[in-house]
Amino acid sequence: MGIKSRPRHDSFTDSFPSQKLWDPIATLEIINPARGNITCVGYAPSCGRRCRNPINYGNRESAYELLEALSYIDTSTTNISGKLRQLAQFTLCVRYHQDQDERMVKVWSKQIRQQQRMGIGEEPLLHARQKTKSADFFEAFEQKLREEQEWMKRLQERVECLEKENQRLKYEAEKRREYSDEEKQQKKRNEETQRKKDEETQRRKDEEKRQQEKNEEEELQKKQEEEKQKKSEEQNKRRKEEEAKAKEAREREERNERVRRRAEEMRKMRAQKVKEQADKERQEWHQAWLRYVSQWEQIKKNGTKGTSEKLRETIPWPVKSGNYKDVSEAAIEEFFQKALPQDADSALTLAYMKAECLKWHTDRIPRMFGTIEDETLTRLFNTVAQVVVRLRVEKARK
């Protein structure tokens, strides 16, 4: 940061509007009221006020030219942030406050907005007479600045001379002290005192260091013991957890095995029960078939005549119970499907059904039992005859 090596006002043209639109020097408070002239516009935190350092002469000239150009710009329609940043670089002192350029852009932008809200700048602020006064003011201002600069230069030279004289006097006084015996002895005593003090300080530091190392070693040992204890506890915990999991797995396996055996026993019991039930049912059907065949043999040998009620009770009907009350197409079909000998093949089964057709033929029944006048009995005979004929036909097709 500092003086910028660039053409002056490279962003401006040489042509301006016919009238000035605002006064940048007043609005931006370029003149330091504490000095009555232009100084650095930066803020000095150590002093709590505006900086009073003069700005670079070349920067001051560029600043005035830039302020003159800004007075012709309409700030309500044009963004002049870049020009304000350039102005800040010109008006900040090179030594301390060049880093406050962004801050000054924000402060000046706020002041311009306040001016716009107050209505200042809607009409030209300066007329021809004001221009003349401004030119005279700037000329006088520049003359005063040049005088102040010359005065500051002489003052600086005087300060440098005084500093050199002060250094010379200090040097001579130091030489005189070095040749003074009393001063030499005092210096030696001071050095001895300082040496002892340094030794004591070093001793305390060494003791503190040893104590710190001891504490750190004890802390490390304690930490290692705690980690060892923690590791041992974790190992015991993991071992117990693994043992518990293994025990749980064994118990679960034993439970599963008991459940499996129980299920197998139940399955076998159900299978045995089903088998026994099936055997019992086959035996019952076998007995029903034997009874059916035996009773028909008796009828063929002895013959049967009598009332309808007697015939109903006497005739061996092809149902499991043999009772006429249970006669139906479904019961008859079930009888011939389950009561026939289980070892009979298709041919033998067909032979059985042919014999049954002859046995229950509607022409043969009257010859065996006489004229049937009971409608219920007739219906029973017809039902049996129809079913056995249908079953014989079905067996013949297979």
Sequence-ordered SSE layout with sheet pairings:
Blueprint: H1 24-27, E1 31-32, E2 37-38, E3 43-44, E4 49-50, H2 57-70, H3 81-91, H4 101-117, H5 128-178, H6 181-302, H7 308-314, H8 329-338, H9 346-359, H10 364-369, H11 375-397
Antiparallel strand pairs: 1-2, 3-4
Region (Disordered): 173-266
How would you characterize the overall build of this protein?
By secondary structure, the chain is mostly helical. Among the domains are: 24-98, no CATH class; 303-397. The chain contains eleven helices and four strands; from the N terminus they run αββββαααααααααα. The strands form two sheets. Strands 1-2 form a two-stranded antiparallel ribbon. The protein has a two-stranded antiparallel sheet with strand order 3-4. It is elongated, with a radius of gyration of 66 Å. The relative contact order is 0.05. Mean pLDDT is 82; it is low at 1-16 and 120-131. Residues 173-266 are annotated as: Disordered.
Total helices: the number is: 11
Coarse morphology: elongated
Instruction: Count every beta strand, where a strand is a DSSP E run of 2 or more residues.
Output: 4
Helix and strand sequence: HEEEEHHHHHHHHHH
Distance between the termini: 117 Å
Largest sheet: 2 strands, antiparallel
Please state how the strands of the largest beta sheet are arranged side by side.
1-2
User: Residue ranges: pLDDT <50 for 5 or more in a row?
Assistant: 1-16, 120-131
**Helicity, as a percent range:** over 70%
Give me the secondary-structure category.
mainly alpha
Beta-sheet strand percentage? under 5%
Our Rg estimate from Cα atoms comes to 66 Å
Q: What value does the average pLDDT take?
A: 82
